[in-house]
Amino acid sequence: MSRSGSTTRDRTARSRRGKGTERPVADRHATRRTTPRRPPAPVTSIAGRRRGRPRGRRRRALQLGGALAAIAVVAWLLLAGPVLAVRAVHVDGLVTLPAEQVQEAAGIGSGTPLLRVDVAAAETRVARLPQVASVEVTRDWPDSVVITVVERVPVAVVGEPGRRSLVDADGVLFDMVTGETPDGVVPLEVAAPGPDDPATRAGIAAIASLPADVRVQVGAAAAASPDDITLTLADGTVVRWGDASESRAKSAALVGLVEQIRTGGLEPAGTIDVSTPDAVVLR
Question: How much is the pTM?
């Protein structure tokens, strides 16, 4: 036992523990050298940040200006430019009307940008032509307009020779006739011809109900009143029609009788009364 109060065994044990845990100086230096160091992050000064902001704003302003310029160019091409302008006006559905007359009535000038063509106004102007029953005006991209017309179909002619007018199935007087009437157009005698005249409408209803092959055999028609309609066939046979009611049934009865007379199944009659289609009378 020593003077300090520790034995030789104790000093020997402390010495061994120290030797087992202490790292050599060289190893500590090697560990510090092999650990990688991160490069310092770049530091932007406040003044630099402020200088970068106007550049971004200028870039966005240039982009916005370019977009607005492109929109302006497109708008000019559509509304005022010559690229999408009218170069031709086509008219479809004509039977008797000249195409030039329809084009003139439409009033669509060559060179007008398609988007600026007022199709509704053009339809209104063409519809004023008496021969037109309906009309549709459409844009045909990129450079033309199409006018589709449905003309009135005459079923009768009214008035005195030299001042006769064609009448369609609605009773509308739409065209003057100076020479021969078209085939299938029946001369109709009424006191006051017109679409608002009940006698005219009744006579037109009777004539329009006849099929085309029978209508051409009708030489004349008369409507003394809405309840007193008569037809005269080309061979002189008088057909008493009565009023305009049941015109389809009366037409079917007359067609059957005419066919039987033609084939010899019935004797010709001077008068055929179809005013009551279920009980036809021949005299």
Answer: 0.67
The ranges assigned to domains in the chain are 56-151, 154-282
Residue 16 phi/psi, 5-degree rounding, is -70, -40
Query: E strands within 118-246?
Result: 132-140, 144-151, 154-158, 164-168, 173-177, 186-189, 218-225, 228-233, 238-242
262-to-9, 183, 235, 248, 259 alpha-carbon distances in Å: 154, 21, 12, 21, 5
Percent of the chain as helix, strand, coil, to the nearest 5: 40, 25, 35
Tell me yes or no: is domain 56-151 CATH 3.10.20.310.
yes
Q: Nearest to residue 116, comparing CAs of 91, 139, 93?
A: 139
Residue 168, exposed/middle/buried by CB under 10 A (0-12, 13-18, 19+)? Answer: buried
| Portion of the chain with pLDDT greater than 90, in percent | 62
Question: Is the bond preceding 142 in cis, omega lying within 30 degrees of 0?
Answer: yes
> Given pLDDT bands bounded at 50, 70 and 90, which one contains residue 47?
low
Mean pLDDT of all residues in 87-100: 95
Q: For the CA atoms of the chain, what is the radius of gyration?
A: 50
Class of CATH domain 154-282:
alpha beta
Q: Which residue has the tokens 């009611």?
A: 245
Rounded (10°) angle between helices 247-263 and 198-208: 50
Q: Which residues contact 137 (CB under 8 A, 6 or more apart)?
A: 106, 117, 119, 120, 122, 123, 126, 145, 146, 147, 148
